Amino acid sequence: MSPRKKDLLSAVAAAAESSADTAKTSAHQLHEKTRLERIPPAVRFALAVFSSLVLSSTLFTLTTGITLGDLGRVSKHLETWWEVGGLMAWKAVEVGLAWVLGYDARDVLTLTLLTHLPTYTLLSTFYTVRPTTTITSYLITLISTTLPFYLLRPSSSLSSPGPKNRSILQDRPTTIYTTVAATAIFAVALYTSYATPWLPRLLVVHFANLPDISAVHAGPAGLPGLFLGLLPAGAAVRDFLFVSSAGVDDEVTSEEKKKKKKQNGGEGESEGEGESKGEGEGEGEGEGKSFLCALYQKTWGSLTRKTQVLVSRTVVLAGLLLGNTVVQVAGTVNGVDVTGAAAWGSVWAAAAVVTGALFGWVEAVDGV
Questions:
Q1: Does the model's pTM come out above 0.85?
Q2: Distance between CA 322 and CA 332 in Å, rounded?
Q3: If both were cysteines, with which of 70, 127, 296, 365 could 133 make a disulfide (CB 3.0 to 4.6 Å apart)?
Q4: Residues of the signal sequence (predicted)?
């Protein structure tokens, strides 16, 4: 058989295998969606928030023999009901926000891993908390947040890329390059913050009785270890930002075309009504709607769908990195104030924004 025929047969076989995988995934998602649709959305949302809180409390109670010694040494003693209620409310906000944004279990797993990483990195690096305690607490946080979504929320379409994008996301060199790039950005951000006088001074002033700050003075020798320790975070950032956005098909469907045409027709109708009414109230409303629609079309509406997904997820990730770090560190770690926690979280949030910009540059290349 000639090499040309072999290549043709290989291409046909690859296409058939991709189509079979897509059909199998679609059938599984349809079955899962049908099963979960029997439960009203409001009930599923309430169950997700409640089960996450109960599961977290139960697992931390069962593992007190592992975590109590280390965490009790560095934790604040919460004596008022509003302090405990505030932390529980923030947990509910995290779960509720992920639910409202339509994230599935895979999205929640990577997002939770990233947003809680600054807290556990701080505990293990500067408070000499044992790895067993850190890993146990981390796993409890991941399980209690992700499991309710796995049971109550069907897989999102963003988790299964279209046929056009599947080859890009399954390309091994691209996977390695994007993961290494994301890891390097976070590692360099932390290393730079350690090397400048800004963060070390904040650690001394706003983190009372910090047991160990040797990581700040490690210099270039600490960069390889920092990079290797952040590799899981780099893979999670790639999955949450790059995979979800690059897997979106930018082709406009017929349904979306009809919707856009209807919106344009509605705008024309509003303008006509405004002219017939003269200088009345209807004309002012029509002009206001036209201005808002034009502003939307020139800003957010001018972006492709994959860019919209990337921008929105980058904003969510950076915001939760900062917000969760402030709540968890300032609210639970003894001797830390809001200023110090915000400074620590801002380093991670800035790294997330830079990583999102890098992925946007990569996705702007033709064929991605």
A1: no
A2: 15
A3: 70
A4: none
